[in-house]
Write a structure and sequence with these properties.
The chain is built from seven helices and two strands; from the N terminus they run H-H-H-E-E-H-H-H-H. With about 170 residues, the protein is mainly alpha-helical. The protein has a two-stranded antiparallel sheet.
């Protein structure tokens, strides 16, 4: 997800790594990423030629800053990764960063993919709910199991509603 954020930010404008990391921390404060991991991901994108340096800046006695931009190959990869976020969704948080960069993909296509994802989620949880109800009907289920199951179903219901809100946002 961090690489998608880097590519998305550089698709928007030329920038330097420190500033992109700062923007990421402000936009997604719940994401915990070490400085080392961030710079590792940045360097990996550079090695794949998805980003490239364009200029070095020197301001007074501060360390030199290298400005980067996204390459054409990087733009193509960004688009692919954004679609994959919607196709391979497993957790709601998987979509947080992708939502920032919807302007780089076809919204109708993203909405169609998300609609299918929502339908699959609903079917999965309906199946599990049916199995849970059958089990409870024929077997005594412990209070702790009921509590855990209740949380899982409440969370799934909330996530589906949130995905439906995202779908409306995309449209």
């Amino acid at each position: 997800m961090i690489r998608i954020y880097i590519l998305g930010m550089l698709a928007h404008s030329v920038d330097y790594p420190y500033n992109i990391r700062k923007k990421l921390m402000n936009a997604q404060p719940f994401i915990k990423i070490s400085e080392g991991k961030f710079y590792y991901d940045f360097e990996a994108l550079h090695k794949k030629n998805w980003i490239e340096p364009v200029q070095k800046l020197q301001e007074g006695s501060r360390p030199e800053k290298t400005l980067y931009r996204i390459t054409n190959e990087g733009r193509g990869h960004l688009v692919e990764e954004l679609y994959l976020c919607f196709q391979k969704y497993t957790e709601v948080a998987d979509l947080y960063i992708a939502i920032h960069f919807l302007n780089y993909i076809n919204k109708e296509e993203a909405a169609s993919i998300l609609k299918q994802t929502i339908q699959k989620e609903k079917e999965k949880w309906d199946t599990l709910k049916t199995k849970k109800e059958e089990k409870e009907k024929y077997n005594k289920v412990s209070d702790s199991s009921q509590l855990i199951a209740s949380h899982a179903f409440d969370k799934a219901e909330f996530n589906i509603k949130w995905l439906e809100r995202v779908l409306e946002f995309i449209k």
